[in-house]
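User: quick one, sequence for these tokens?
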């Protein structure tokens, strides 16, 4: 494992994922000594948290953008008067609305 790890705040999400995959591979191989394994595990944990935080941040931004876009696209519902047949309670021949009120 490199001893000059790039600081987390200088990493892109993609760089962090790539480094995390490399660390996971090294740990799975079992070729590192104990101290290097522990250091790699610690770095991997930090990278995992960094990636999780980045994904959560992206998710929040997407939700905000979707809500903003949704409010722009919302159409106001026009209320229409519906004529009801008094004797049956059915809607009086309106092409847009069907059914009866019970």
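Assistant:
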């Amino acid at each position: 494992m490199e001893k000059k790890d790039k600081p987390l705040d200088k990493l892109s999400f993609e760089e962090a994922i790539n480094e995390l995959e490399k660390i996971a591979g090294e740990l799975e191989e079992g070729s590192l000594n104990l101290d290097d394994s522990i250091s790699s595990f610690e770095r991997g944990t930090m990278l995992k948290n960094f990636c999780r935080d980045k994904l959560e941040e992206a998710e929040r931004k997407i939700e905000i953008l979707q809500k903003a876009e949704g409010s722009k696209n919302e159409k106001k519902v026009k209320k229409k008067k519906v004529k009801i047949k008094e004797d049956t309670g059915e809607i009086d021949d309106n092409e847009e609305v069907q059914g009866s009120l019970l």
